[in-house]
Amino acid sequence: MDECGSYPRRTTLPWVVGVTQVLGLTSVVLTGVWMGRYRGGFAWDGSAKEFNLHPLCMVLGLVFLQGDAILVYRVFRNEPKRNVKLLHGGIHLFALIFTIVGIVAVFDFHRASKIPDMYSLHSWCGIATVVLFCIQWVLGLMFFLFPVASAWLRATYLPLHVFCGVVLLVMAIGSCLLGITEKLLFSIMSTYSQFTAEGVLANCLGVVLVCFGVLMVFIITNDDYRRPPHPEEEALSVHFKTLTEGASSPTP
Amino acid sequence: MDECGSYPRRTTLPWVVGVTQVLGLTSVVLTGVWMGRYRGGFAWDGSAKEFNLHPLCMVLGLVFLQGDAILVYRVFRNEPKRNVKLLHGGIHLFALIFTIVGIVAVFDFHRASKIPDMYSLHSWCGIATVVLFCIQWVLGLMFFLFPVASAWLRATYLPLHVFCGVVLLVMAIGSCLLGITEKLLFSIMSTYSQFTAEGVLANCLGVVLVCFGVLMVFIITNDDYRRPPHPEEEALSVHFKTLTEGASSPTP
């Protein structure tokens, strides 16, 4: 009964993951269309075209790739854990690279246009997300890919790592929504209320990002989609159990 | 060892709940000071003073009270479940009343000032949150307070009710952050970048709301803070177990 009860939900995993990918790619495409079609395109010359790389890189890196890096533990549930860990860290590395390019683009544009930095709520939330994302990436690397921490420390840190990962994804999406609102009011304040195409497109981008976030959190927090225990990992996890009785399972 | 392992975390519950209350009350006070001190105060006359009731009511109702309504299952962990349910529904009723007053205030102000409705990302996210909040409240009432649904249906709906509750709280906070950004850019766009007192105060309000949300989600998702099984409820839950083998515990 237990297996029968959870079987139908397990089979929905490819479908819900598929929907997240459609939503994630749609958000990247909508950002590209918004910046490319309505804001003049992209360049690396200190102009507004360099700023346009900022939203594209943040949506691609800090939202879509960060989300996919988390999802690998659900999608590759039957692959060896070491490989999945490497993929998780690898996608996060790409996410980090796009994030850094996006951050450099906006600071470079501000410097060239003599616009003050870090005064808005978007910038406060955004920079907090980026700094915490970097810390989370370095700690994750040290704790789970390189044998720096003890087994006890790893098992203790794991639930916090998972919680912070979800919080960071939600904070990244929240920061993007603030950025969308800021950009629209800076660019089309006088026509925004007339439901112009650019405003509606950017609003739709925001809605797609919210749907992506809700579905991602649903997948991550749903026990039926969790990685099942594997025999060879079970043998290893005995150490965890002995050392940390009462701690959560070391499978994120 | 199991009990010892979780005991220190359990004792932290009053402290983390205390911090959420300080953060929640601070957010309400900061909103009141922002609207009262910098935006001319409050009235019910269709003017900007009526609009000022909108942020105050939304932060108080849809964030602070909604959060507290969820928290009662953790704070009153040893009270009879029926009483806790009534308190949960009752606080949500107050949250709903403040939310409706806040929504009426902004639509009334828009009508009096001939400002179009529902064109911004803040309004799209906000109205989605309010509509879903109303649906969630009515369904919660029907499923858990009045004997409309079968035990099987209640046990099946419970995890979705809990998930949607957390999503709605996060969406409410996200909508508030969008509203803060919108209000600041409408009111002080030319001086916002000079770190004026009003801008910094409103940014701090945003940061307090984010901290409130993160801590609330931490408490809600932490197994150690969950309501322990009670003997008299265990007897009742046998029905649930028999009917829904493999389903989650009916304790939110």
UniProtKB/TrEMBL annotation, chains A, B:
Record key words, sorted: Cytoplasmic vesicle, Electron transport, Heme, Iron, Membrane, Metal-binding, Translocase, Transmembrane, Transmembrane helix, Transport
Segments forming domain Cytochrome b561: 19-221
Description of how the protein assembles with itself and partners: Homodimer.
Function: Transmembrane reductase that uses ascorbate as an electron donor in the cytoplasm and transfers electrons across membranes to reduce monodehydro-L-ascorbate radical in the lumen of secretory vesicles. It is therefore involved the regeneration and homeostasis within secretory vesicles of ascorbate which in turn provides reducing equivalents needed to support the activity of intravesicular enzymes.
Regions that span the bilayer: 12-33, 53-74, 86-109, 121-146, 158-180, 200-220
Membrane topology of the entry: Multi-pass membrane protein
Pfam families in alphabetical order: Cytochrom_B561
Known cofactor(s): heme b
Gene Ontology MF term list: metal ion binding; transmembrane ascorbate ferrireductase activity
Primary residence: membrane
CC per GO annotation: chromaffin granule membrane; lysosomal membrane
Protein name: Transmembrane ascorbate-dependent reductase CYB561
Gene3D superfamilies in UniProt: 1.20.120.1770
InterPro entries found in the cross-reference section: CYB561/CYBRD1-like, Cyt_b561/ferric_Rdtase_TM
Originating organism: Neogobius melanostomus
Catalysed reaction equations from the record: Fe(3+)(out) + L-ascorbate(in) = monodehydro-L-ascorbate radical(in) + Fe(2+)(out) + H(+); monodehydro-L-ascorbate radical(out) + L-ascorbate(in) = monodehydro-L-ascorbate radical(in) + L-ascorbate(out)
Subcellular location: Cytoplasmic vesicle, Secretory vesicle, Chromaffin granule membrane
